[in-house]
Predict the 3D structure of the following.
Amino acid sequence: MQTMQIVVRLDVMLARRKMTSRDLARQVGITEQNLSLLKSGKVKGIRFETLARICAALDCQPGDLLEAVAKP
Amino acid sequence: MEELRHLRRWAAVLRVLTIVAMVILVLALVYGILFAVLPDGLRRAARLVPETSLSGPHRAAVALVGAVPGFAMLYVLGRMADLFGLYAGGEALSPACARNIQRIGVGLLAAVALELVARPAQIALVSLANPPGQRVLSISFEGADLGQILAAGLLITIGWTQREAARIARENEGFV
């Protein structure tokens, strides 16, 4: 079975919505540092609660933010 | 957040008390070894003839043997001060806290074990002042010893669970 990894496409959605990381962090209620870690994929996971708040702020679905790609 | 603030304040107070207890214990150990008289209980246990008195070095040796469990307690207090210091610094669920809790448990266990050995050794040492044939070796185990063993076991177990809690807390930090 092919090994997959989850890639966070938050940058793309932020650009589409013309929103800054700072604004999103404020709306979601997390620190900019944590949002930066999330964007760079340097987190172990994301809570459903945080994901739901990001989706609400960006008016999108979880599938718009997360993508499963084959590990190189 | 409020609870963490309470913990930090409470731990800071306990740390000071623990350090004060350490100082008192050191002074008591030094005084006991250098100046204290032989306790009546020990004289009775060793069946020492009332008019017999021990020489200074003999009495100091008895006190030194009796002080050995006190050194283990000093170690326990040291680890407690470290633990309270970590709590006061806001570190509640860390491997360092778990390690300290386990060491406190091990220290208490060592203190009981040393107490069990030191007591008979003291009696035997005191009874050396008796004429040959009247020397005593007495081994005893008290309810308080069992209580201390159980408390030590409890702390060692809590230390293990704390390690697991620290691992989960670290894992949780990786989530946003």
